Every structure is written in structure tokens, then in C-alpha cells.
Amino acid sequence: MALAPTPPPPAPQRPTMRHSSAFLLPSPAPGGGGGGDPDDDAATVALVVLNQPLPRFAPRLWSRAAVRVCADGGANRVFDGMPELLHGGQDPDEVRARYKPDVIKGDMDSVRPEVKGYYSNLGTKIVDESHDQDTTDLHKCIDFIAKNSSVANKSNLCILVLGALGGRFDHEMGNINVLHLFPNINIILLSDDCLIFLLPRTHTHMIHIERSIEGPHCGLIPIGMPSTSTTTTGLRWNLDNTSMSYGGLVSTSNIVEEDKVTVTSDSDLIWTISLKN
Ligand SMILES: Nc1ncnc2c1ncn2[C@@H]1O[C@H](COP(=O)(O)OP(=O)(O)OP(=O)(O)O)[C@@H](O)[C@H]1O
Ligand SMILES: Cc1ncc(C[n+]2csc(CCO)c2C)c(N)n1
């Protein structure tokens, strides 16, 4: 007697993780004060400034953050860049006192001595890890936020990283690697032109599109590992149980069509979306 075919195992049920870029809005949308979840107005923002030109929205995000950490030469960018961004004839030292980093951390080969001394005198904590030449300054800063800062234990922590994209390709890849090193922390890499975050495979992702400030161009990229099955909704070119890999298909130059995009995958994926100027 023929046996009945064994039914395929049910697809794993994943919890939903919600994402929103409402933190970039000039004034927060109702309930959109933080980073990860648009309905979670208690989300806690930590800011990391890298050694790249400050994005135009840096002052706004600085004001929203609970802790501000400069990665080594990122402190030079705050020292030089905040007075420039705010122009309007304000006294540079008055601006610098208002935009004082809580911490400068890194291997300290890029922060200028006078900048380090200036902020140290204002009370900034300086963490010199010049002995560690195996992890990047961004990695060191995420470690600091995860282990030592006042926001470390917040379940709704969102770390915004300024100046992570554009510039040197080895640094960009190192910055993206940090997303894969800390898959359980909500980290968003930002430039003036786009943002990037990781979609861990443990969840289905519901990405709320803030159309006034982001899109329509987007991408879904399996940087860390290939994916045998990714399914999306809300995109012009949706994936339906589709494989993606470097050397095969990766979803670049896609377009968001709906206010909500959903993504489910068997691999960690990078989500990226363009920012409007
Ligand atoms: N051109 C860039 N593009 C993207 N990220 C950058 C760039 N330059 C610096 N960063 C980021 O800012 C952090 C601090 O930069 P900094 O220049 O102080 O690093 P660094 O370790 O001295 O770099 P290196 O010695 O490789 O030149 C880096 O860890 C990196 O995450
Ligand atoms: C295989 C390997 N490649 C590169 C480096 C160099 N490196 C990586 S992170 C870092 C610190 C930058 O502030 C430096 C110098 C290394 N150690 N190991």
C-alpha cells in the first residue's frame, strides 16, 4: 500500500519587527519620537558620529539623542562641523558647548589633540583604545553603548550612526560588518543620501515608509550570507520565495510602492532606502 506523502514542515512563525524613519522628521510624528517602532514613543536614541562630513540633519538628531559618542576623528567633525552647519553668526564655542559629546572613543589616531583637550575640559569622557588594532572605531563605540552607557539596557534602543556611507569603501564595508556583528541591536547607518539597517532572519519585518523624507529607491541585499527564500510585499519588484546571493540575484534599484513594506527571509538581509534632500 502506498504511503501518503509527508507534508512539508510548516514555515516557521516569526514575530514581527517594526521599523520607521520618523526620527528624521523635522518634528516627530505622533508616537514617532524614537527609532525602531513608529508606535513606540519611548524609543531611546544613541548617536555615533564617524569621521565623515556631518549630514545636514546632525543637529536635530543630536538633540533627540540620549547619549552621543564620537568615534575617534568623528570628534573633529563635531568640533568643526556643528558651528558650520548652524551658521547664523553664532559663537563657535557657544555652539560647541551645546553640542558636547558624552564620549570620544577609538584608537585616537585621528582626533586632533586640541579637539580632544577641548572636550575633555568640558567633561567629555575620553576612552583611548589605541592598543586594539583589530576592531574599528565604530565597533568600539557600539561596544561602549552596549556595555557601559546609561542606555545599554533599554530594550527599545536605536543607535543612529552618522557618516557611515560614502567615502572609503573599506570603511563602508567595515561599518556594514558592524551591523552583522550586533544583529540584536537596532543600528541604523546614515548618510545625507541613504540609510541602511539589518533585517535579522529571526523576524518578519514591517517597514513603515516615511514618504516625505525617504524613497522611492531601495534595495534588499544578502551581504552576509546567501538567502534561499525571501518574500516581500510593497515593492515594485517583489520577491516570492526567491533566492538571492552575490553572484546571483540581489535586489538593487527596487522601488517602494506602498506605505508599508514587509520582508521575510531565511537569511539576515541589508535593507537600504534613499533619503530625499
Ligand atoms: N571615508 C569613510 N567612509 C565611511 N566611514 C568612515 C570613513 N572614514 C572614517 N569612517 C568611520 O569613522 C570611524 C572613525 O574614523 P577614523 O578616521 O578616526 O578611523 P581610523 O581608524 O583612524 O581610520 P584609518 O586608520 O583606517 O584611516 C571609522 O571606524 C569608520 O567607522
Ligand atoms: C586581518 C586584519 N586586517 C586589517 C587590520 C587592521 N585594522 C583593522 S581595525 C583597525 C583599527 C582601525 O582603527 C585596524 C588597524 C587587522 N588588525 N587585521
Automatic annotation (TrEMBL):
EC number: 2.7.6.2
Top-level taxon in the UniProt lineage: Eukaryota
Annotated Gene Ontology cellular component terms: cytosol
Keywords: ATP-binding, Cytoplasm, Kinase, Nucleotide-binding, Transferase
Record field: transmembrane: none
Compositionally skewed regions (Pro residues) per UniProt: 1-13
Subcellular location: Cytoplasm, Cytosol
Catalytic activity, reaction form: thiamine + ATP = thiamine diphosphate + AMP + H(+)
CDD domains for the chain: TPK
SMART domains noted in UniProt: TPK_B1_binding
Pathway: Cofactor biosynthesis; thiamine diphosphate biosynthesis; thiamine diphosphate from thiamine: step 1/1
GO process terms (BP): thiamine diphosphate biosynthetic process; thiamine metabolic process
Main subcellular location of this protein, as a coarse class: cytoplasm
Molecular function via GO: ATP binding; kinase activity; thiamine binding; thiamine diphosphokinase activity
Stored InterPro entries: Thi_PPkinase, Thiamin_pyrophosphokinase_euk, Thiamin_PyroPKinase_B1-bd, TPK_B1-bd_sf, TPK_catalytic, TPK_catalytic_sf
Protein family according to the UniProt entry: Belongs to the thiamine pyrophosphokinase family.
Protein name (Swiss-Prot/TrEMBL): Thiamine pyrophosphokinase
